[in-house]
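QA checklist item 7 of 12: single-chain prediction sanity check.
[x] sequence parsed
[x] length recorded as 121
[x] structure emitted
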Amino acid sequence: QVQLAQSGGGLVQAGGSLRLSCAASGSIFSINALGWYRQPPGKQRELVAEITRGGRINYAESVQGRFTISGDNAKNTVYLQMNSLKPEVTAVYYCNMRITTRGSISVRDYWGQGTQVTVSS
């Protein structure tokens, strides 16, 4: 089985920074895409940033210029550097990877456990 383990997050003041990490482990054949999502209180999960299979990077308009997504292929890890944080980004953040497992021809999405990011004013 594949498991995504998240780390980082916490409580910071407005204007501060955090870096989220997400490492995949298990029977991984390939990772086809990487992404970060967030779910504010009482709202649906939404895309924050992603790296597509073709290597393109997309950001939500609200985080453009402040957040940076990156990946480390050797570590099966994706990062989200979050700078100039604002209270409105407070949410539970989830990592996502589209993975093909060993012995399978199928691709499916895997999710991290989520981590709380709270920005105080």
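[x] summary fact logged: The mean pLDDT is 96.
[ ] second reviewer sign-off
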